[in-house]
Amino acid sequence: MSFNLYLASIWRAWKTGWYRLQIRVIHREKLNKTSTDAHPCAGRHRASWILFLLVLLAVLATDLVSKTLAFELVAPSPVRLTDSVRLGASPIPPHEAIPLIPSILSLKLTLNTGAIFGLGKGRQWFFIAVSMVAVLVLIRVFWVSRAQARVIHVALAMILAGAIGNLYDRVRFNAVRDLLWLFPEVKLPFGWRWSGGSTGDQLYPWIFNVADAGLVVGVVLMLVVMWSAGPREPVAGRDPD
Question: What's the CA gap between 33 and 44, in Å, rounded?
Fold first, then answer.
């Protein structure tokens, strides 16, 4: 074989391999596009963003407005949160609970320097850091979720609104403003008591806010979806296994 024929054979082999590679790349791009079209991610889907933001803003606005109004109107005089909170003193004067739904829901003011249900009191910067990480994680989870997963989007928006609502309080007031009290006139049976506190004999002694309720409802929704989903569904933009 002459040198020219040798070069020509190498050239033909290279062109054949290149063409095959191009065909494989084009085929894979078509498969990826088809998969993405079948399962678009919520981060690139306008309707998903609209639903997510509407729920987020509704829960967050309800939380912040209810806190502001309650701390203005429930106690005998408006409660001003100042640096005394950072020093460990509570500016909330003694006051009676105001019934919203008799024996079911009342308004009573308190400040929580811990997490939900008062856990971990006094660790504000830890909870601020955790909340900020949680906000980023929740946005990421929403972005990669399927556009059709509307219940998950509602749940994520409620959880995110709860995290932002309480994060705002921690950063601004060094404590979370709580105001909702479930079953205020219902006591535990048989003389039972929760550990500590003057309300230890109450069926539900914890006072919470709309942000806490959003967190709990959102988590419950997520658990229900996970429990009822059955086999794992493909992630947006990926081929099923």
Answer: 14
Q: What is the pLDDT of residues 87-102, one digit of tens each?
A: 566 788 999 999 999 8
Query: Which active-site residues does the annotation give?
Result: 178, 212
Q: What is the DSSP string of 111-145?
A: EESSSGGGTTTT-HHHHHHHHHHHHHHHHHHHHHS
For 50, which DSSP code? Answer: H
Contact 97, 108 (CB under 8 A): yes
* CA–CA gap between residue 89 and residue 80 (Å, rounded): 12
Tens digit of pLDDT for each residue in 61-94? 999 999 999 999 999 999 988 755 655 667 889 9
Looking at the predicted structure, is the pLDDT value of residue 208 above 80? yes
Q: DSSP label at 202?
A: B
Say what the pTM is.
0.74
**Nearest-CA neighbor of 142 among 241, 236, 62?**
236
Write down the domain spans for the chain: 1-38, 41-228
Query: Helix crossing, 46-73 with 210-228: angle to 10°?
Result: 150
